[in-house]
Specification:
The complex is a heterodimer of chains A (122) and B (534). Chain A has 122 residues and is α/β, with parallel strands linked by helices. Chain A has one domain: Rossmann fold (3-Layer(aba) Sandwich). Chain A is built from five helices and five strands, in the order E-H-E-H-E-H-E-H-E-H. Chain A has a five-stranded parallel sheet with strand order 2-1-3-4-5, sandwiched between helices. Chain A is globular, with a radius of gyration of 13 Å. Chain A starts with 5 loop residues before the first strand and ends with a helix. The relative contact order of chain A is 0.18. Chain B is an alpha+beta fold. Chain B folds into three domains: 151 residues, Beta-Lactamase (2-Layer Sandwich); 177 residues; 151 residues, Histidine kinase-like ATPase, C-terminal domain (Heat Shock Protein 90, 2-Layer Sandwich), CATH 3.30.565.10. Chain B is 60% helix and 16% strand. Chain B contains eleven helices and twelve strands. In chain B, the strands form three sheets. Chain B has a five-stranded antiparallel sheet. Chain B has a five-stranded mixed sheet with strand order 7-9-10-12-11. In chain B, strands 6-8 form a two-stranded antiparallel sheet. In chain B, strand 4 and strand 5 form a beta hairpin. In chain B, helix 3 packs across helix 4 and helix 4 packs antiparallel against helix 5. Chain B is rod-shaped and about 225 Å long. The two termini of chain B are 124 Å apart. The chains are: A alpha/beta (122), B alpha+beta (534). At the A-B interface, helix 1 and helix 5 of A face helix 4 of B.
Chain lengths: 122, 534
């Protein structure tokens, strides 16, 4: 059996976490983290292929988490999944920094699958 | 006078000069004669003869008294023309002179002045020459002199007479007319223009005189004219002066009035100054207040933006699982569902979508109001954009059985934010679908209008009454007018947002409608636009 791709989703809203897990669970091994700190801790324990980060979270913003990840890992595929819209210019800037994609909520399950697949293929 | 004096001088000079000339010529002839005589005496003497008769002969030839003596070395007259003089002793320091000489001497016995020629003979005894003395009276010279004087005087007097006659002629023919003309000129100079010069000489003077008279009469005419002008001028000046005096009086009056007015103005100015100061003070106070109010408003705006931003995030968060799970259940991936369940799930899906749209619109509206929306400008073909909008709303239109037609006869490429313009067209079409009757028709027309791209969305619905057309683009129009619910949701932010977006593009949006005949909403945006857009 082919080894499944491991993805970590970080969001402070449990229902969102469940939905994304349900959507992506059929394709990937998906783990969930409730906060930025938890995400960083889990990244220490396990080797993930990709991380899906919410932006607006109580303890650490998705952006802060991303900076922490890049301190130790330059290759890990990281994309944002947020309700905050992102302009083209900002997206270009983020991509230059090494962000794989920026996905805006709400998004249909089918669309989400497509976008994540595109990120993981790269 | 001068001529007379000159004549006299000339005469005197002539007399004097002719006398000298006469004396000189006498002296030289006498000298020659005496020389010849001397030679003859010398020859005779050597021959041992005495030319006594020769001497006598000479004396007889003379008209006037004369004498001829031969004087020996002792000064004794040894021979003379007059026998009485024989043997007489002469005392003369000139005796024994080596050369002949002439001299005027006075001899009482001869009754007057004589010209003496002394000639030394070539006979020497004891180292001394014998001398030949010949004297001649000067009377003929005097006579000649008198004659000259007389004739000179005669000539002088004749000349004087001639001069007098000539001057008389001059006076008559030249001087008189000149004097007359001078008199005339003087008269004219003194201002007497009536003076008539009378010259009848039948020559140039008469011509001159008549020309002079002509000139005088012309002058008289000119002067008369000048006097006339002068009088008129004087009259004019007098009248003007009168007028000016009147004006001056008027001016003085108005000056006084102006002065009074100035006084009043000064007074008013002072009052105004006081007023101004108090107003300035008030303005300063108001400015401070306004500054504070502005700061407060800015603060408020920032808070509002933060609030809406947070609110939309908080609203979107629950919408995501609602829509996601509805979608998943409807797709059948969570197990089989009945037709009734599917029907109700569709209602959830539609409302969630409406809610999601409302949240997005609210956020948009807030950002447009705070000018936080940044356009992403690019080249974009608007016909294609209309097609895209029509495609994305095809399902909505199909549900209401409304036909959407695109009328784009040419490619219209504008420089704009593609996403935002698409949003505008979608808003307009959505509205059109909402307010069109079932089986209605919608037309999207794309064209060029000068330097602008023009897009209009036309429906054949119920139309919009004139008085409501202005309000159409204000926020929450549909809620305020109470038509939102019955037309299937939406709060009416769409047109307000569209207006904001079009205005950001430096374009224009407006509505044309007649009640019952449908409505057309049109917007224009510049084809080419500067990059200064926000």
């Amino acid at each position: 059996m082919k080894k499944k791709v491991l993805i970590l989703h970080v969001d402070d809203d449990p229902d969102t976490l469940t939905l994304v897990h349900d959507v992506l669970g059929s394709v990937y091994d998906a783990d969930s983290a409730r906060s930025g700190k938890e995400c960083l801790a889990m990244l220490h324990k396990k080797k993930y292929d990709g991380v899906l980060l919410d932006v607006l979270m109580p303890d650490m913003s998705g952006w802060d988490v991303y900076q922490q990840i890049r301190k130790t890992d330059k290759k890990l595929k990281v994309a944002f999944l947020s309700a905050i819209e992102c302009s083209k210019e900002r997206l270009a800037k983020l991509k230059k920094e090494g962000v794989a994609d920026y996905i805006t909520k709400p998004i249909s399950p089918a669309e989400l699958k497509k976008r994540v697949a595109a990120v993981m293929k790269k | 006078m001068i001529v007379g004096l000159l004549g006299l001088l000339l005469t005197v000079f002539l007399v004097f000069y002719s006398t000298i000339e006469l004396e000189d010529s006498l002296t030289s002839t006498q000298m020659q004669m005496v020389g010849i005589l001397a030679k003859s005496i010398e020859t005779d003497y050597r021959a041992g003869e005495w030319p006594f008769e020769t001497l006598e002969e000479i004396s007889k030839q003379e008209d006037y008294p004369s004498f001829t003596w031969v004087i020996d070395h002792n000064g004794k007259i040894v021979m003379a023309d007059n026998a009485t003089m024989w043997g007489k002793q002469i005392k003369d320091p000139a005796l024994g002179a080596e050369k002949p000489f002439a001299e005027k001497r006075f001899y009482p016995e001869m009754n007057g002045e004589m010209l003496l020629i002394a000639y030394p003979l070539d006979i020497k005894e004891q180292g001394k020459h014998w001398m030949l003395y010949h004297g001649n009276s000067l009377k003929p010279i005097a006579a000649a002199k008198n004659k000259i004087i007389l004739s000179s005087i005669g000539f002088f007097l004749g000349a004087l007479c001639l001069a007098f006659i000539f001057s008389l002629f001059l006076a008559r023919n030249i001087t008189k007319p000149i004097l007359e003309l001078t008199k005339g000129a003087k008269a004219v100079a003194e201002g007497n223009l009536d003076y008539n010069v009378k010259v009848e000489t039948h020559d140039e003077f008469e011509n001159l005189a008549s020309a002079f008279n002509q000139m005088t009469s012309d002058l008289k005419k000119s002067r008369a004219q000048l006097e006339k002008y002068s009088k008129e001028l004087e009259k004019g000046i007098k009248e003007k002066t009168k007028d000016l005096e009147k004006e001056k009086l008027k001016l003085e009056k108005s000056e006084k009035a102006a002065y009074n007015m100035m006084e009043d103005l000064n007074e008013a100015n002072k009052d105004l100054e006081v007023e101004k100061k108090s107003i300035e003070q008030k303005v300063r106070e108001r400015t401070v207040e306004l500054q504070k109010a502005y700061e407060d408003l800015k603060e408020l705006d920032k808070a509002k933006e933060e609030f809406i931003s947070l609110l939309s995030h908080e609203l979107k968060t629950p919408i995501f699982p609602i829509m996601g799970y509805t979608d998943m259940i409807l797709s059948g991936s969570m197990g089989k569902i009945s037709g009734k369940q599917k029907e109700k799930l569709k209602i959830i899906e539609k409302n969630a979508a409406n809610l999601s749209r409302l949240v997005a619109d609210m956020l948009d509206m807030s950002r447009l109001e705070l000018k936080k929306v940044k356009l992403e400008m690019d080249k974009c073909e608007l016909g294609g954009l209309a097609k895209e909008a029509s495609d994305s709303l095809a399902l909505l239109a199909k549900n209401k059985r409304v036909g959407i037609k695109i009328n784009a006869k040419e490619k219209v490429t504008a420089f704009c934010d593609k996403k935002r313009i698409l949003q505008v067209i979608e808003n307009l079409v959505t509205n059109a679908v909402k307010f069109t009757r079932v089986k209605g028709k919608i037309e999207i027309a794309v064209s060029k209008d000068k330097d602008n791209a023009k897009v209009s969305v036309k429906d054949n619905g119920i139309g919009i009454p004139k008085e409501k057309q202005k309000e159409l683009f204000s926020r929450f129009y549909q809620i305020k007018t109470g038509i939102a619910r019955e037309q299937g949701g939406g709060v009416g932010l769409g047109l307000a947002i569209s207006k904001g977006i079009i205005e950001l593009h430096k374009g224009r949006i407006w509505c044309e409608s007649e009640k019952g005949k449908g409505a057309t909403i049109t917007f224009t945006i510049p084809l080419k636009t500067t990059k200064s857009l926000k």
